[in-house]
Amino acid sequence: MIPRYSRPEMVAIWSPETRFRIWFEIEAHATTALSELGVVPKEAAEAIWQKGSAATFDVARIEEIERTTKHDVIAFLTHLAEIVGPEARFVHQGMTSSDVLDTCLSVQLSRAADLLLADLDKLLAALARRAMEHKYTITIGRSHGIHAEPTTFGVKLAEAHAEFARNRARLLAARREIAVCAISGAVGTFANIDPAVEAYVAERLQLAVEPVSTQVIPRDRHAMFFATLGVIASSIERLATEIRHLQRTEVLEAEEYFSPGQKGSSAMPHKRNPVLSENLTGLARIVRGMVTPALENVALWHERDISHSSVERMIGPDATITLDFALARLTGLIENLLVYPENMRRNLDLLGGLHNSQRVLLALTQAGMSREDAYAAVQRNAMRVWEARGDRAGLFAANLKADADVSARLTDAEIDAMFDDAYHLRHVDTIFERVFGPAA
Q: Is-contact 131 161, C-beta < 8 A?
């Protein structure tokens, strides 16, 4: 991933230095386990740990060797032998390359998931704080982009909080599923290495044991992991899209923070564009684009092939680095989001109270009118307001009062009572309790 959309801690997980360090730990732990089984001299296992732990693996040297071997694990083992000396002949006993590569990937994805879980916690905290701040900030709800009935800006943010809480639970489950170790040798039968070695390495690396590895860890695990990242990315885009719509000039109910000295356009000095939200939309597309290759990696030939390898070398770093950056950017966006309650009120009043149409419809049915007749009566009065030009304040209520069919069922006072917006917010507390608990 390019530095522009990368954060150092996540990038470090995927660096060659980190990868080779994990490879060494897998090999060294396996050698220690073999020494306890009497397969490898204990002195050799101790020497491997001592010399390897103190070493700095030379990435350039490993790459130089690989240009000859055309095999990355062999190149690493050759370099390790240069560091360790004669005892290196006991490294990789009964193992195959996938034991190292797949177990390492499990460690890296687990560490990446831990950073993403921390990112989600920060985002959830920001959403909770802003939701509480605007719990009763009334705004018009929209369906199909058209005014519907009132909600609150806090409810909008509570909805996002609930969605990202589900995403956190999904990621936690995906982390558990991907955190497995395979040290089972060629075709996964343990013919040349005891299953106890796998259990030992798994415990030391805080992984579970893969029940049947067939030489590689089954890729349905990885597919679920990347699919989960794709779902999280879609949730990011959904919230970013909401903010983009709310920042439109004609709406302007919320707006990204515009810092001093920031420029919105090279041509038009007046512009304040939703660049963060638009950027998040693009980043979400990148992460989702990596889900299909992960799904296609599930179908490998027989016990293994390496058609998945090139894919994972790209999507592992890129998906996690991109999502880490996107979650951090979204958190900052929410923390600094400018909210304009007065504009929300202005927009709410644009259609002269039409957002109460359902309440009038229900009142007419309760008063004895058929639903079909009630709908027709409310709609014809609503359409007159919809088509009116200029100030529509009070127009819907006035139309209803002047309609003979409506006034035959409802008094003027009863109609006026239906234009109290507090009615629409009666159950906001219930929604917040469901999302945040009884203290909300």
A: yes
Under 8 Å between Cβ of 190 and 219: no
DSSP 47-58: HHHHHHHH----
Q: What is the pTM of this model?
A: 0.95
Buried b (16+ CB within 10 A) or exposed e, 297-328: beebeeebeeebbebbeebbbbbbbbbbbbbb
Of residues 131, 174, 63, 14, the one with CA closest to residue 436: 131
- Which tokens belong to 262? 């920031």
The model's pLDDT over 206-264, given as tens digits with 9 standing for 90+, comes to 999 999 999 999 999 999 999 999 999 999 999 999 999 999 999 999 999 999 999 98
CA distances from 371 to 143, 192, 379, 411, 413 (A): 22, 77, 12, 19, 22
Positions marked active-site:
144, 265
Token couple for 56? 């700095």
The closest alpha carbon to 49, from 36, 31, 61, 33, belongs to: 31
User: Which two three-digit tokens encode residue 409?
Assistant: 């069922």
Please give the DSSP secondary-structure letter assigned to residue 185: -
